[in-house]
Amino acid sequence: MSRPANQLRPISITRQFTSTAAGSVLWKQGGTTLLCTSSITPGVPPWFGSRHVGGWMTAEYTMLPGSTPSRKPWPKSGHTDGRGTEIQRLIGRSLRACVDPRKIGTNTVHIDCHVLQADGGTRTAAICGGYLALRDALLSMPAKLPPRPTGPDAASPPSETERNYDPHHAIVDPIAAVSVGIIDGQAVLDLDYELDVKANVDLNVACTQAGKYVEIQAAAENGVGYTHEQLLSMLTLGRKGCDELLKLMAES
């Protein structure tokens, strides 16, 4: 490989890439390119029930037909396939871990991640780009709710949702994600497709600025498995990568 095993691929971040969504980011990581947008709609899913306080965040993920050398067909049913469903659940879980939903009002934030070009690490790149799009969307919301009427004809006292509303401070712990693999016995950071197909072990990790792991996905690709020491080496390298990504994202 042309870079050190502990080095991220070149990363380019373009904020506000489109003007229609509340937040939008063009994320390039090596040969992988994604457009991540975030939109806000009033209301929360009906299954929340009346006791729920605050909002909700959900993610969608899709690989466009031209994102791979061989055209990837659209799914026969719905907008994504089984792999895409698993990945968008991963993205949603990761992004919900960094936000206090009580502060965004009774709203739903939709994070949509579209892979324009795939060259490894699309799910982890989607978490990073999705986080930035989410952050910008929250900053686009009104800082305060309209003042409530006062006097004898005033409505009931402010609800708990109204009292907690503070979307500009809703992110409690920024998050990033990166891939790591074991190739010829060595831990390698941020795998592109060529490295990914050679890896004996493939790990995806999402962790927060405070050092908390939100997701760890690790699988042996050769049927042999991996040692405790190899797992620790991958987590250490993944933590390093996430720290570097968080710094880049904060400076973007």
Fraction of residues in H or I helices: 25-40%
Number of strands: 9
Given the structure, what is the number of helices? 5
Estimate the strand proportion.
25-35%
CATH class: Alpha Beta
* CATH architecture name: 2-Layer Sandwich
Structurally, how many domains make up the residues? 1
The CA-CA distance between the termini, in Å, is 28 Å
Strand order, sheet with most strands: 1-2-3-5-4
Radius of gyration: 20 Å
- CATH superfamily heading: GHMP Kinase, N-terminal domain
Tell me the series of helices and strands, N- to C-terminal.
EEEEHEHHEEHEEH
Principal-axes shape call: elongated
List low-confidence stretches: none
Mean pLDDT: 92
CATH T-level topology: Ribosomal Protein S5, domain 2
How does the helix and strand content classify structurally?
alpha+beta
Verbal overview:
The chain is an alpha+beta fold and about 250 residues long. Helices cover about 25% and strands about 30% of the residues. The protein contains five helices and nine strands. It has helices at about 80-95, 120-140, 160-165, 195, 230-250; strands spanning about 10-15, 25-30, 30-40, 55-65, 105-115, 175-185, 185-190, 200-210, 215-220. The strands form two sheets. It has a five-stranded mixed beta sheet with strand order 1-2-3-5-4. Helix 1 (about 80-95) crosses helix 2 (about 120-140). The mean pLDDT is about 90.
